[in-house]
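Lecture notes, unit on protein representations.

Consider one protein chain, 142 amino acids long.
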Amino acid sequence: MGPGSDHTRPDGVDDLTVEALGNISEALEAVEIARGHLYNFHRLSGTADLTLGKGVEQLREAGHTELADRFERELVGRNVLEGRWTFQVVEEYDDGYYALFRTLERDARDALVEGRRHLFEAEMKEDRRTHGRDGHEATPAD
């Protein structure tokens, strides 16, 4: 058996269109990874600020009040970018670049291949798998 209908190109769709949509999908995957790193940045920055606060309190308890005051005044709770904490960076990315990328990728698939995803990869799988061999089935149902 071959791929299901949701992974078969519609009639009349040429190779270049499938390849173009494959590249756009690959680019979206890179954006998804970048978004994950941005969330990691958000989490690590928040953790750093909270841990810094603990360290500053310990400096204060150890009698290093002037140094603790400087850390607290200049660094604890500071914006990571002008006017922004990391949650604001994440929100701006999600609502702007990321949302637009996802919308345009989906719109292109809807317009050109009836919304079908991963056609390039599905065709690559068909070309590379050994038909009839265990572990090389086209779909889980095979």
